[in-house]
Structures are given as structure tokens and as C-alpha cells.
Write a structure and sequence with these properties.
By secondary structure, this protein is mostly helical. The protein folds into 2 domains: 56 residues, Arc Repressor Mutant, subunit A; 139 residues, Tetracycline Repressor, domain 2. It is 74% helix and 0% strand. The protein has 9 helices and no strands. The N and C termini lie far apart (67 Å). 24% of the residues are buried.
Length: 200
């Protein structure tokens, strides 16, 4: 009997947790971390504080889960690009930047959630910031490996250049009007970088 009660309760708890996380993620992305309080989250999720704290220890945990979820989406997008152009590292690099621009131009875009959180929580010892820094280190590593695979004469330098270019596109999305966004020129810049630095 106990097992049947547990099995009937768990899906409901999962639904509430998912609803709270979905509400928090939408609010955090649109409005920012510090502008969104617990009251706004529970109101958006159509629940109460007791339910929130039964599922999450704190707002900080929600922020971390938000960052992890966004990172997972980011990873899946990159994996798809890598798989589609598995034999052509130069094309992989080009498509990564192409996908960045497409996302930045999409309706409802408020920039990169990870970059936004890192800027908003700058100087704070927050688990979400640590997680973002680890993810960015992985991005640098990927670019360096792609540069090496593409035959770069100095893979580390080209990888660093590409990640700086990528971050510049990401961070400038909110500071420029869409039609003036410098990333609109990034395809030509990447093409030039690859032609100048890669032997293959």
C-alpha cells in the first residue's frame, strides 16, 4: 500500500517541481536574477512558497538549475552541429557561429543566459557562476581542439581568438540594436581567420 501511495504522489511532486523550475527559468531569462523574487516565481508557477521550498532548498538552487538547463540546451545544439559536419572542423566552426547569430536574431532573445547570469552575479561566490566558468573553459577547449583539427599553425592562439570572438558576439547582443549587431559580420571574420591560420 505504501508503495502505491508513493508512486501516486511522486508524479505530482515532479509536475510541481517542473512547473516551478519552468516559471523561474522564464522569469530569470526575461527579467534577470535579482529582479525576480520567490513571490514572483510561485505566482508564475501557480503554487506557493511551501511547495517551492519542498522542491528547492533556495532561490540560489533554482538559479543553478536554470544555468544547468540552459547549458544542456547549448550542449545539444553544439553536438548536433558537430555530428552534422563531423569530417569538416572548419565547417563545424563556421556553423557554431552561424547558430549563434540565428539564435541572437530569433524573437524573444535576451542574449545568452549564462553570460547574463555571470554579469549579474559578478563578484559573488555563487555555484551558478562557478558552473558557468567551467562551461566556458570547456568551450575554449573545444575551440582549441577544432582549431587543431582544422590544421591551425597555432591552435591555442586561434582557439583563444575564436572564443573571444564568440563571447564578444554573445555579450554585444543586448548592447546593440538588432540591425547594428556586430555579429552580423562574424561569418566573414571567421572565414578570414580560418583562411589565414589554417593550412588544411
Amino acid at each position: 500500500m505504501l508503495n502505491s501511495v508513493e508512486s501516486s504522489c511522486c508524479p505530482q511532486k515532479s509536475k510541481v517541481r517542473d512547473r516551478i523550475l519552468e516559471a523561474a527559468m522564464g522569469l530569470f531569462y526575461r527579467l534577470g536574477i535579482k529582479a525576480v523574487g520567490v513571490d514572483a516565481i510561485v505566482s508564475e508557477a501557480n503554487t506557493n512558497k511551501m511547495s517551492l521550498y519542498r522542491n528547492f532548498e533556495s532561490k540560489d538552487e533554482l538559479v543553478l538549475e536554470f544555468v544547468k538547463a540552459q547549458e544542456q540546451t547549448f550542449r545539444e545544439r553544439w553536438r548536433a552541429i558537430m555530428a552534422e559536419h563531423a569530417e569538416d572542423p572548419k565547417e563545424q566552426i563556421k556553423r557554431i557561429f552561424e547558430a549563434l547569430v540565428e539564435k541572437g536574431l530569433a524573437g524573444g532573445s535576451f542574449g545568452c543566459s549564462g553570460a547574463n547570469v555571470a554579469v549579474e552575479l559578478r563578484g559573488e561566490e555563487h555555484p551558478a557562476v562557478t558552473h558557468i566558468q567551467q562551461t566556458r573553459a570547456e568551450v575554449l577547449s573545444i575551440f582549441c581542439q577544432l582549431a587543431a583539427d582544422a590544421g591551425a599553425t597555432n591552435p591555442q592562439q586561434l582557439g583563444v581568438t575564436l572564443v573571444l570572438l564568440y563571447e564578444g558576439c554573445v555579450l554585444s547582443r543586448l548592447s546593440f540594436a538588432k540591425e547594428q549587431w556586430p555579429a552580423l559580420q562574424v561569418a566573414e571574420i571567421v572565414e578570414q581567420l580560418l583562411n589565414q591560420n589554417c593550412t588544411q
